[in-house]
Amino acid sequence: MTKASAFARLHPKIQQRIHDPDMRWPKLRPIQVEAIHHVLDDQGDAIITAPTAGGKTEAAFLPILSKVADDASTSVRALYVGPLKALIDDQFRRVDDLCARLELPVHRWHGDVNASARKKLLSRPSGVLLITPESLEAMFCLRSSALPAVFAALDYVVIDELHAFVGTVRGAQLRSLLYRLQLLAGRRPTRIGLSATLGEPEKACGWLSVGAPPARIIADSTQGQNLELMLRGFWQVGQRDPTLEEGLSEELREEDLNRQAMAVLKACQGRTNLVFANAKSRIEELAVRMSEQAKSLSLRDEIVVHHGSLSKDERHYSEERLRQETLPVTAVCSNTLEMGIDIGAIDRVVQVSAPWSVASLRQRMGRSGRREGDPAVLIATLSALRPPWRNHWESLQLDFLRGLASIELMLEGYVEPPDYERRHLSTLVQQLLSVLRQTNGTQASDLFAVLKGSGAFAHLDVASFQLLLRELGAKDIIEQMPDGTLILAGAGERLTGHYTFYAAFQTPKEFQVTTGERVIGQLSEDRLPPVGQSFLLAGKKWTVRSIDGERAEVLVERARKGSAPMFSSGGQEVHRVLHEKMMALGAGADVPSYLDDEAEEILESIRQEGRKQDAFRRHLRSAGTKHFCYLWAGSRIQRTVFLAFSAAGFAVSDQSIGLEIEGDEEEVRRTLQRIADGELDGEKLARHAEEKLDARSVDAEKYDAFVSTEEWRTAYAAELLDLAVAARLCTETIR
User: Fold this and answer.
1) Report field, pTM of the whole predicted structure over 0.90
2) How far apart are alpha carbons 690 and 699 in whole angstroms?
3) Helices then strands (H, E): number in the chain?
């Protein structure tokens, strides 16, 4: 069908709104045309995929609003779920704009929304509601009696940034909540997912559409925008050289950091930019140096900061500065600006150090080039260590190589697939307790049906469910009444009654950092700088004046110097495809055209060192009692083989793409052969990880403490190990 016929099918007031001068809407995009017909023809669930700023939100809401515009007052008719409060606020403005000519209320609900706005929704439910999974969880726990009326006529659920939910803890929680909402409303709303970056979208269709035919993919078929790409390499001269005096070594390190900050500043000068770094401490350090350098050069460029440990006001300030177009602004940021928050037209994206994943890099790159005809611009700045190196692994410059491999895979169109097979035991516990809180008690068979029916816990069976109930009963979390009804026990009441229960993911206790007049951000309780110490936050320098443990508050004042504090963080799983691309690049001879001279020099050094070690293939290299096992196999295989050697009694160290093993060569090869022959027992490896390596604490999800040892080990083996692929790759290693 044509664009004209799609436009004609929209509600007349939506048509009028599109024609309003302030909307500046030249035409409907192809995905919007297709989505309009799909939704208005009641064709079921859909996943709408398009680049950032590709019109996905409008593709979903133009037809949805047209459907509900004349009958919006009976209950909430459309529910939008987003992963971030900032994204909720941003999309609230956009949906509200679309509704400017409609008598259609648009509501939002999260921790920063005032009580009167919430009361208004509960007393007169209507229109569109935008919410986070955690706030929806809170509604089930605190306002369950109101929910049937609030959602009685719910027709549509829109899930934004779908890739942030598929295969994750929050995604399991959301699937469970949506199914429970469906049971309360007595109807199944149409589900529409929105995403710019989604691996294996066909599988995501089944993930989204539990209890219904798989979703249809509505993809942007237009030719992608042009990409301008450069990789700048930086040799670090001030690294750990034992021949240097400590003072000189620190001076050279400062030179390294300032040189890279200056290069980033020059790349950003006079433009609006996003500079992404993985670590918050690196973000703070880089922002301060860039600000000082801009000031010393009398540049007009403003440097702002954006990450999850800053206060709402600090983040909003950065977003507003990016949106204005009077001065050049650069935001040094984390993945908080990967999402589709409207921050105006971004000229350039700079990636400092290797990204966590290819998906993340694609998402970041898509933030630039939003003006008509403008290319997306990505500049990567990757460092490498000059010799002397501490060990031969360091000479392979794995961070540089991973960054280069991520770019190459992005150019090939690759995105890591989500893990669709996770058991989500921790989230299962949370949802079990949430149902009991919502219902004030229920029969075990009914509880099982609710949890199983959501599709979030596909591996749940009656035996494992009964085992979980016994564990929770033994820990005073639940209890059973004489008639068989399961209810929350004392510890369960306290657990579900605290606001921290609503998030399915682990959240450390945090202290607010304040000047006394305003909140700047938060620091984890275990990472607080002592009184009198100076540190960096929000791109500025502060000194700790006092720490109030009862109020969980750190009082600070401005300082003249400071270093970045340590933030809680965790690495991500590396997919095997990324390691294999790193291996291929190291073994290859081609030099990508987007490398600058220093990056080319670094790549050639990596290849020379790799040839000396024979590092860029899977094999075992021995030097006396020390053995180097090159796996290039991703995190799960690396973990599996590491645990096999550790459980066999070897001294073994994890080197990201391989292992370093101490011991007799014949015994090492025999162990590799046992792995290759498929002799590993996953649950025995999980037991070793739990008992010897404290993996249950290190890798723990929020409610793992309530899961039986047997179930935890089974899940660990299934989700974090891969015996079959480990066997195949170890066969290749010992050929």
Assistant:
1) yes
2) 10
3) 27, 25
